[in-house]
Write a structure and sequence with these properties.
Blueprint (H helix, E strand, L loop, with lengths): L14 H13 L4 H11 L1 H12 L4 H7 L3 H5 L2 H5 L6 H12 L3 H7 L12 H11 L1 H8 L6 H15 L2 H18 L3 H15 L8 H4 L4 H8 L5 H10 L12
Helix pairs in contact: 1-2, 2-12, 3-9, 7-10, 10-11, 11-12, 11-13, 12-13, 13-16
Length: about 250
């Protein structure tokens, strides 16, 4: 009797695939596709932990029921234009203008799977949500998106917040590479600070982003426990001439 084989677990880890993508990413820090390949290869088990944590958070089950697609909301010009000056959303709007990035663009780059589409479930939605808040976290933390140091520091912050070996894999690799490239530890100290600051902050994945975007930026940072990244600022000043621009995480 022939049996249909059980479908492969879409959340399993694939270390060889992660290593291949990491080599390409370290060679070309602008190759953002490799970031998503690393995340897909290593972050799977963490998604289920995130979902369980969100379910146990006040308001979390309601967010899962609604399953707001942030990429769609953040791609709506009317929605983005409505934020008052000084709010998280207005700063995010300026971020998009200054960088040329977009929520839709990030979502498109993340579509790197060649496997059949994973059946829709809450884990898949939470994975997209984690992707879609990335640039909002740039705004909240103050880590610049147009430099390798800012991206690497946010990756470390994201590992502390979201778990997943993919974040740790990239943060550790870029910090180690920086020791060789810059011949100093300022870059690595900033990355380590990003992790520590992520541990100190409230769990950002539980936030209602449609409300958060309307909060004044400084007030939101205080409420969320996001502190000034002092080691990052010091590394910016020290390494500015040597930092690659626009690199996703290259050092």
């Amino acid at each position: 009797m022939n049996r249909t084989p059980a479908p492969a677990d879409p959340y399993r880890r694939d270390l060889p695939a992660a290593l291949r993508a990491l080599r390409k990413l370290l060679h070309d820090g602008d190759d953002t596709t490799q970031v998503f390949l690393i995340m897909r290869a290593l972050n799977g088990p963490a998604v289920r932990h995130r979902l369980a944590r969100l379910l146990a958070t006040p308001g979390g089950p309601a967010q899962i029921d609604k399953r707001v697609e942030l990429a769609d909301r953040l791609s709506d010009p009317a929605f983005v234009a409505a934020f008052a000056p000084g709010t998280v959303g207005a700063t995010y709007r300026d971020f998009l203008r200054d960088t040329g990035y977009s929520a839709a663009g990030l979502a498109e780059v993340s579509k790197v799977d060649r496997e059949p589409r994973v059946e829709e479930d809450a884990c898949a939605w939470l994975g997209r949500r984690t992707r879609d808040v990335h640039d909002i976290w740039h705004v909240l933390t103050g880590y610049k998106a147009d430099e390798s140091l800012g991206e690497a520091s946010l990756v470390a912050f994201s590992y502390a917040q979201a778990g997943g070996l993919g974040w740790a894999f990239i943060a550790a690799a870029t910090a180690l590479k920086s020791l060789r490239v810059t011949r100093g530890s300022a870059f690595a100290r900033a990355v380590w600070e990003g992790y520590r600051n992520g541990r100190k902050a409230r769990w950002l994945l539980a936030e209602d982003y449609e409300s958060l975007l309307h909060e004044p930026l400084d007030a939101a940072r205080r409420r969320l426990g996001i502190v000034e990244p002092k080691a990052y600022r010091a590394a910016q000043r020290l390494l500015a001439p040597a930092l690659p621009a626009s690199g996703a995480v290259g050092a």
